[in-house]
Amino acid sequence: MKFKAVLAIFVAGGMAASAAAQQTGTGGPPPRPAAPPRAGSPLPPPEPIEHITGNVYKIFGGGGNTLVVVQHDGVILVDTKMPGNGQAIMDEVRKITDKPIKTIICTHSHPDHTGSTDFIRDLYPDVRIVMSEGTKTELAANPQVNPKLLPTETYKDRLTIGEGDERIELFHTGVGHTGGDTFVVVPAAKLLFMGDVMAWNMAPFLPAGGAEAIATETEKLVDAVKGMGIEIVVEGHGHVNNWAGLTRLSHFNRALVNAARAAYDRGDAPGVAVAELQRNAEFAPLLDTHIKKGLEYGNTPLARAHMNVNVAYTEFSGEQAGFGIANGAPLPATDKHKGSDPKDTAPPTPEMLAAAVDK
User: Fold this and answer.
1) How confident is the model at residue 13, as a pLDDT?
2) Facing residues of 115 across strands?
3) Is the dihedral of CA 82, 183, 302, 317 positive or negative?
4) 335: burial class by Cβ within 10 Å (0-12, 13-18, 19+)?
5) What would the CATH number be for the domain defined by 1-32+42-155?
C-alpha cells in the first residue's frame, strides 16, 4: 500500500498535518518537543506509564500504545507513537529504569506507531529497529520518508529476539490492518501485543487488506500462538485485554464475513448483516455504541462493524472499497448490491463525543 494511502488514515482524524510537520527532520539530536498536542488535537497526550505484569509496562496516548519491556541490559520498546512524543516516552521510561533503549519493534507503518523512532534513534544511535518486510516496504514507499524511521533489520514471517526468560517472538500472519502487521509475544509474561489488529476492543480498521483478509490473519495468529499460554493481550490502542477477548475478536471477524456473505447473496442491505451479529451475545463488547477514550476523532465499535461489512460487500462484488468506504463513507447501491444506510457510519454527534467513555 502506498504511503499516501496510509497517511490518508490520519487525514480523517485530523492528524496528518502534525505528522508531516514533525517527521521530516534528519539533522542532529532533536530538541525537547513542545509538550502535548495542541488544544483540540484528536490525540490525548501520553499518560503516566502503567505496569502490566513483571517487567512489562505500557504508555497510553500520543498515538498507539507503547509497550515497554525492561531487560537486564536495556529496554525494548514496541511502537513509538506520533512524531513529537519521543521525549514524553523517555520521561515515562525513566520513571522505572535508567537502562538504555536497545531495541525498537514497530508493529506496522502508520505514523502514530512509528513517529518518534527518529528521536530515540538520535539518543541511541546503535538501537536495533525491527519490523516486518511489509512494514519497511510501506514506509519506504513514501519519497519523503525520514531514513531514521527505517529498520536496521526486517523479518518475513517469524523472528526470535533474545533467549531464555528474555525471549521475544515476532509473528506476521498476513495482510490485514496493513500489509506488514507484526504481533509481539513476550513468552515469560504470557503476553501478546496486538498492534492495531486489535485496538479499542472493536473490529479492525481495514485500509490495506479486507474483511476476508483480517479474518484469516487473526485466525492464523490464534493458531500460531495458542500453545504459548498467552493470558494477557495488550491492544494497539486503549486497553489490556485477555486471551478470551482475542478469540472473541477472531470469531467476530469471521462471523462478520459470513453474515455479510449471506446478506449479500440474499440481496439484503449491509445493515442486515450487522443486525445478525447483534443477535449474538458473545459479540456485544465489539458492538458498543460509545466513543472510546483516545478515539474521539473516530467512531463507535458498532459503526466500525458497519464499515467492515460495507468493505466485505465491495469484495463480494469485485469493486474497490477505497479509503472512503473503509473509513465510513456510505456504500453506494449498484447493480450488484444494495447500498448502506448513511446513518450507520455517520460521524459521531457532539453529544456522543461529550459522553465518551473513560473521560
Assistant:
1) 34
2) none
3) positive
4) exposed
5) 3.60.15.10
Which grid coordinates belong to 248? 472473541
Q: CB-based contacts of 142: which residues, under 8 Å, 6+ apart?
A: 3, 4, 7
Q: Report the alpha-carbon angle 335-8-143, nearest 5.
A: 120
Per-domain residue ranges of the chain: 1-32+42-155, 254-354
Is there a contact between 276 and 261 (Cβ–Cβ < 8 Å)?
no
| CA 359 from centroid of its chain's CA atoms | 21
Closest CA to 309 of 338, 351, 335: 338
3-state secondary structure of 226: helix
Name the phi and psi angles at 192, rounded to 5. Answer: -125, 130
Hey, how many other C-beta atoms are within 10 angstroms of the C-beta on 301? 22
Nearest residue to 10 via CA among 137, 109, 92, 86: 109
CA distance 132 to 222: 19
| φ/ψ (deg, to 5) at 244 | -60, -35
Give residue 109's pLDDT: 97
What are residue 104's DSSP bridge partners?
77, 129
Q: What is the pLDDT of residue 8?
A: 41
Q: Do the Cβ atoms of 49 and 78 come closer than 8 Å? A: no
Residue ranges of alpha helices (H) inside the chain are 3-12, 16-22, 86-93, 111-114, 117-123, 133-140, 211-225, 243-266, 270-278, 301-317, 322-326, 350-354
Handedness of CA 99, 102, 108, 111 (dihedral sign): positive
pLDDT along the chain (359 residues), means of 10: 37 33 30 32 82 98 97 98 97 98 98 98 98 98 96 98 97 96 98 97 89 97 98 96 98 98 98 98 96 85 97 95 91 97 93 70
100: left (phi > 0), else alpha (psi -120 to 50), else beta?
beta
Phi and psi at residue 200, in whole multiples of 5°? Answer: 55, 20
